[in-house]
Amino acid sequence: MPLFFKKKLYLSLSFFLVLGIDLYFKTSDNPIYFRYFSKSLIIIMVFLYFSSNNHQKQTKDKFYILGLLFFWIGDILLLLYETPILYILGMLSFSIGKLLYSKRFSHQNDFKMSSLLPFFIVVFAYTVIIILYIYDNLGRFFMPSIIYLFTAMLLGLFVILRKDAVNKKSFYLIMIAFLCSIISDTAGGLESFYNPGLPFHEIIVMLFYGLFQYFVVVGLTSEKTIVREDYQNNFVKI
């Protein structure tokens, strides 16, 4: 099994096959317990691939593994979305997963505060727009939703900060992963709290969530750390 998962092509084909099966279960009338299996298998495949292909091992890798665990817990809890408390716990599990991913993406390089300004402007505008759309229907989900949006923004921040700390291939793969997570989260939020009849929401949410996990694991296993020996005085240490 480990040798199989060392082949990127095999991973890609198998991963998207399982993702396709999960999408089929999601959009059909099959019993929900089928998705317990298919969603769990997605996380298991990602874990096996990471553990078999992670050549530049770091102590921070444990945060990625823990993050996967919390995403899996969130996956299972969100299947029971009709029970409000389980839906909230699922959101919190995803939030913890994003925080753990953020920790894995963190590094010790310096950065210019001015370089983050465009990111903060875009993220602030995005957050305000989403909240305006869903605010009236949040009710008891207001605080969990705010926490979730905050962790999503924090994840994006640490993704951006990888730019000069890792090789370009890894940076862009993780950036694509983050954009996929934004699309999935946006579609899920709008469907849950704004328009339950959002076209293709069932496919969009799971497809882009799956792509998020896929590009994260491929990006991390492609990562090569760039060591910068000279720092500018106007940089800020994190």
Could you explain how this protein is built, in words?
There is one protein chain. 71% of the residues lie in helices and 0% in strands. The protein has 238 residues and is mainly alpha-helical. Helix 3 (33-53) packs antiparallel against helix 4 (61-78). The longest helix has 26 residues, at 168-193. The termini are far apart.
Q: What's a concise summary of this model?
A:
The chain has 238 residues and is mostly helical. The chain is built from nine helices and no strands.
What attributes characterize this protein structure?
disordered C terminus, 238 residues, mainly alpha, 0% strand, 9 helices
Tell me the strand percentage band.
Answer: under 5%
Low-confidence stretches: 230-238
Helix fraction by DSSP (H/I, runs of at least 4): over 70%
- Give the biggest beta sheet: none
What's the total helix number? 9
Total number of strands? 0
| Overall spatial form | globular
Output the structural class.
Answer: mainly alpha
Rg for CA atoms: 18 Å
Count the domains. Answer: 1
Mean pLDDT: 87
Q: What is the terminal separation in angstroms?
A: 39 Å
What sequence of helices (H) and strands (E) makes up the elements?
Answer: HHHHHHHHH
